[in-house]
């Protein structure tokens, strides 16, 4: 989004937060509004879709510390009314003519000129030496975009490919992002030779100012694309296939380079950041790269020992319970945990837990009583040394 538009939009108001809101407050407000107005939640509701676009646009700026600082500084610069929406306001100071158009500062205007940006103007104002600066003509990179997805526990552990449906600025499908009508191309501005700025000397100083012909973009579009009005960008709903790597954790952000908001006039796109939420599993837990589970066993199995089949992410494996195993002991199965990015996998940690039968028949009760007597005769005391006993 161009800084010219920042003057006319109140992103804090869009999200319903104050100008000194914390990043966490901004994030929470965006999530709530995006969830309530998402096209998937309200299909066919144009007002909700426009609201979704507006809050996404606001969040893209306010969630980025550098962009938010630039946004705040730009609004403060023009808060005194020095520039009106149509042009220069007399008496506001400065040295511009009354025919000066604010679009000339920001690189907008008819014919789909790109976004040179206030930063480019100020950065090249005192260009001692007088040479034009090519950087001023570079179209601005698209904004980063954030979205969320929820995965099942096993999907997150093993990795999965998911489709994400999102509405955001994307390259125009008609002109493929160039801004020019199909069959034509932007041409290099002859006045600045594509630099976007022209230089003039005044005494000991060399000043650079935006080129009047191309308004700082370095190129001219004689026949703009009718679908995107020369910007090279359209708002559209698209589906992106995202590969989630194995072992992703709850709350982790995944960066997809070049999948964010499209840049104007063929400039590089921003990045897409996907925050992953992982749902709980009925069997497995997780501790870093290790999987955890609780294995119910009988008292006899702990005393006598046994081998039990337990689940893993890719099948089942036999776990040996040694004779005399204590309740709560953790048995480790190496290499059957969560896959690691560096290769290999964590371990499976199996905690044994005695399951007590709620009711026994007469035979079982009599057998248990005989065992109890035999246990006492053997000298075993489960509370020996416990609590001063």
TrEMBL record:
One Pfam family, short name: DnaJ_C
Family annotation (SMART domains): DnaJ
Keywords, comma-separated and alphabetical: Chaperone, Cytoplasm, DNA replication, Metal-binding, Repeat, Stress response, Zinc, Zinc-finger
CXXCXGXG motif repeat windows: 172-179, 189-196, 211-218, 225-232
CR-type zinc-finger residues: 159-237
UniProt keyword annotation of tRNA processing present: no
Binding residues for Zn(2+) 2: 189, 192, 211, 214
Keyword Metal-binding: yes
Cofactor note: Binds 2 Zn(2+) ions per monomer.
Cellular compartments annotated: Cytoplasm
Residue span(s) of domain CR-type: 159-237
UniProt cross-references to PROSITE patterns, sorted A to Z: DNAJ_1, DNAJ_2, ZF_CR
Amino acids binding Zn(2+) 1: 172, 175, 225, 228
Cofactor: Zn(2+)
All copies of domain J, residue ranges: 10-75
Family designation: Belongs to the DnaJ family.
NCBIfam families cross-referenced by the UniProt entry: DnaJ_bact, PRK10767.1, PRK14279.1
HAMAP family for this protein: DnaJ
Function: Participates actively in the response to hyperosmotic and heat shock by preventing the aggregation of stress-denatured proteins and by disaggregating proteins, also in an autonomous, DnaK-independent fashion. Unfolded proteins bind initially to DnaJ; upon interaction with the DnaJ-bound protein, DnaK hydrolyzes its bound ATP, resulting in the formation of a stable complex. GrpE releases ADP from DnaK; ATP binding to DnaK triggers the release of the substrate protein, thus completing the reaction cycle.
Domain notes: The J domain is necessary and sufficient to stimulate DnaK ATPase activity. Zinc center 1 plays an important role in the autonomous, DnaK-independent chaperone activity of DnaJ. Zinc center 2 is essential for interaction with DnaK and for DnaJ activity.
Assembly behavior: Homodimer.
Protein name: Chaperone protein DnaJ
Natural source organism: Nocardia jiangsuensis
């Amino acid at each position: 989004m161009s800084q010219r538009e920042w003057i006319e939009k109140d992103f804090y108001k869009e999200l319903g937060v104050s100008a000194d809101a914390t990043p966490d407050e901004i994030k929470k407000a965006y999530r709530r509004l995006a969830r309530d107005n998402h096209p998937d939640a309200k299909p066919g509701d144009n007002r909700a879709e426009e609201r979704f676009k507006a809050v996404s646009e606001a969040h893209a700026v306010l969630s980025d510390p550098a962009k938010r600082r630039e946004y705040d500084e730009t609004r403060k610069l023009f808060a005194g009314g020095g520039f009106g929406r149509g042009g220069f306001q007399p008496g506001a100071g400065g040295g511009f003519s009354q025919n000066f158009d604010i679009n000339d500062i920001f690189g907008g205007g008819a014919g789909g000129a790109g976004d040179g940006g206030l930063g480019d103007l100020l950065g090249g104002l005192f260009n001692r030496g007088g040479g034009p600066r090519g950087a001023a003509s570079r179209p601005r990179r698209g904004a980063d975009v954030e979205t969320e997805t929820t995965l099942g526990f096993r999907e997150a552990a093993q990795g999965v490919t998911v489709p994400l449906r999102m509405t955001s600025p994307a390259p125009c499908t008609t002109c493929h992002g160039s801004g020019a009508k199909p069959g034509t191309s932007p041409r290099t501005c002859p006045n600045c030779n594509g630099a976007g700025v022209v230089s003039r000397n005044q005494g000991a100083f060399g000043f650079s100012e935006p080129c009047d012909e191309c308004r700082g973009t370095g190129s001219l579009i004689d026949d703009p694309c009718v679908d995107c009005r020369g910007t090279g960008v359209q708002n559209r709903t698209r589906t992106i296939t995202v590969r989630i790597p194995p072992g992703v954790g709850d709350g982790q952000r995944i960066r997809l380079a070049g999948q964010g908001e499209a840049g104007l006039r063929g400039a590089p796109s921003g990045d897409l950041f996907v925050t992953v939420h992982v749902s709980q599993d009925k069997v497995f837990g997780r501790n870093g790269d290790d999987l955890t589970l609780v294995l119910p066993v009988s008292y006899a199995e702990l005393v006598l020992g046994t081998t039990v089949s337990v689940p893993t992410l890719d099948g089942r494996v036999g776990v040996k319970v040694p004779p005399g195993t204590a309740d709560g002991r953790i048995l480790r199965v190496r290499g059957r945990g969560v896959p690691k990015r560096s290769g290999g996998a964590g371990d499976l940690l199996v905690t044994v837990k005695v399951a007590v039968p709620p009711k026994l028949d007469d035979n079982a009760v009599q057998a248990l009583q005989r065992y109890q007597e035999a246990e006492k005769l053997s000298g075993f005391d489960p509370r020996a040394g416990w609590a001063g006993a």
